[in-house]
Amino acid sequence: MQLDSAPETYLDANIAKETLSGALRNGSLSLFVGAGISRSTTRGFPDWVSLVKRCCDEKGVDFNARKKGSNTYLRKCMETVERKCAKQEFLSLVGTKLYQNVQYDIQLMRTDLLVALGALVMTSVRGGARAVVNYNFDDLLEWYLGYHGFTLDIVSRFPALTTRSDVQVYHPHGFLPHMPKFNDLKTNTVILTEKSYQLAISSEVNPWNEFQRSLMGSTLGLFVGLSGDDPHIDNLCNKVYEQIISKKRILGFILLLDTPTNRQDEQHRLARGLIPMYIQKYADLPTVMLNICQLAAEL
To answer: How far is CA 58 from CA 126, 233, 265, in A?
Structure first.
């Protein structure tokens, strides 16, 4: 598996899939998953805007729908909500609004994207992802994998002693589980407000930042369910590509909708060693991910 060609080389879809399948086969692939994974279930999980609006409505915070496209505005709204909450009430509120229409059942398990993500994570002879960095607060992925009998090592805070398991899942932005058996892993903070986001992005001694940079530097990343314009992840990728990898190989791939905006940002991502893989619609994600598994099995 060669990773040291010019980043533009990997824009070829066939080369991209061959590279990812090789990393999966070799055990050098890591997954970085965002809110698009939970949202794809269409069974109750709110998108980012809906979650913020639910919390604002609960605490009487004005919500300007015309500004909902701004992540900064949404994080500032959540900061206002937090100021209106008593101690520990904020996390309870977020968790309640996150799961208020969610039911873990057999229908949810049949979600195509969950099936595809599970296929990448579940180790077999053709390989499996080494780790999952989950930027979501929910335990949907943990519930899905556990239901299939896989042992999980969930890391929601540092320091943590990792154990032997089928799958390691990391929650750098916080963890608000729905399942009682994960309650002791619940974090006392989440990265959801503008203040918490700024602290996370600016800290050089944040162990989560150190961990993510280390993982990005030692594995090939596949970024799924992320918008592609998160300044925190952009900052991490830039530092790894420039300082750790030193541009000697690509950093990873990000699955994105084929839109004019994403096409315009292509060179920005390539300059960070992050290769966009374009899809026409979100429903294409499972096919692309399962195809990577299938190619790995044929190697």
So the answer is: 48, 30, 37
* Opening angle at CA 289, ends 285 and 292, nearest 5: 150
- If asked whether residues 156 and 201 sit together in one domain, one would say yes
| C-alpha pair distances (Å), 93 with each of 79, 82, 85, 188, 296 | 13, 9, 9, 13, 43
Q: What is the pLDDT of residue 38?
A: 65
What tens digit of pLDDT does each residue of 77-105 get?
999 999 999 878 999 999 999 999 888 88
pLDDT band, residue 138 (cuts 50/70/90): very high
Sheet holding 220-224, edge to edge: 152-155, 167-170, 131-134, 29-33, 220-224, 252-257, 274-279
Phi-psi map region of 174: left, alpha, beta (phi>0 left; psi -120 to 50 alpha) = left
DSSP calls for 155-175: E-SSS------SEEEE-TT--
Do 142 and 217 lie in one domain? The reply is: yes
pTM: predicted TM-score of the whole model, two decimal places: 0.94
78 and 118 co-located in one domain: no
Question: DSSP class of residue 86?
Answer: P
Domain shared by 77 and 130, yes or no: no
Does a structural domain hold residue 219? yes
The reply to whether 133 falls in a domain is yes
Indicate left, alpha or beta for 247 from its phi (over 0: left) and psi (-120 to 50: alpha): left
Asked if residue 132 lies in contact with residue 30, where contact means CB atoms within 8 angstroms, the answer is yes
- Which residues form the domain of 72? 48-99
Examine the pLDDT at 195 and tell me if it is beyond 60. yes
Verify that 150 and 208 share a domain, yes or no. yes
